[in-house]
Write a structure and sequence with these properties.
Distance between the termini: 39 Å
Number of helices: 8
Largest sheet: 2 strands, antiparallel
Structural class: mainly alpha
Number of domains: 1
Length: about 160
């Protein structure tokens, strides 16, 4: 009987310590997660944009050239690069978030063009097996989701680790 009571107390103590640790971790995540998300997303946009300024460095360059055949890629790719870098800088600095996120959401439909215009470059087996280029495009769903989360904070909203009572 003593062992059972001791096990119960140890279990309750373990549960309490786990809850305390869980609260500390989730509180830290809620406090810092939006900042980390914004900076990380900004780095991705700035970096991918900057690569487009140097012919041959961006893995997306050929895809952009083939997809935007209706405009001259020699001027369009540098404009796209600067656009993406502006999004990245806006996210990193954290100012003018409405304009920054508008630029992000205006740019995103263009990233999906290859799905319609160049399906052979996107799929090895439609609709489930993607090429490397297809994976590059589908990852934009995460970027869109991150943009939506950040957009939800432009009026001062924040994350919380505890639900309201």
């Amino acid at each position: 009987m003593r062992t059972s009571l001791r096990q119960t107390l140890n279990r309750a103590e373990l549960d309490a310590r786990f809850d305390q640790l869980d609260r500390a971790i989730t509180t830290w995540m809620a406090r810092h997660g939006l900042f980390i998300l914004r900076i990380g997303l900004g780095i991705v946009f700035f970096w991918f944009g900057a690569l487009k300024l140097f012919p041959g460095l961006s893995p997306a360059e050929d895809l952009v050239r083939e997809t935007t055949y209706f405009v001259d890629p020699d001027w369009f790719i540098p404009v796209l690069a600067l656009w993406e870098m502006a999004i990245g800088l806006g996210l990193i600095v954290g100012k003018y978030m409405r304009i920054t996120l508008l630029l992000l959401f205006l740019q995103m439909p263009g990233t999906a063009l290859p799905i319609v215009i160049l399906p052979d470059a996107v799929w090895t087996q439609f609709p489930y097996a993607l090429t490397l280029e297809g994976q590059y495009i589908v990852k934009n769903l995460v970027l869109i989701g991150a943009g939506i989360v950040l957009g939800g904070t432009v009026r001062g909203g924040r994350l919380t680790s505890e639900p309201e009572a």
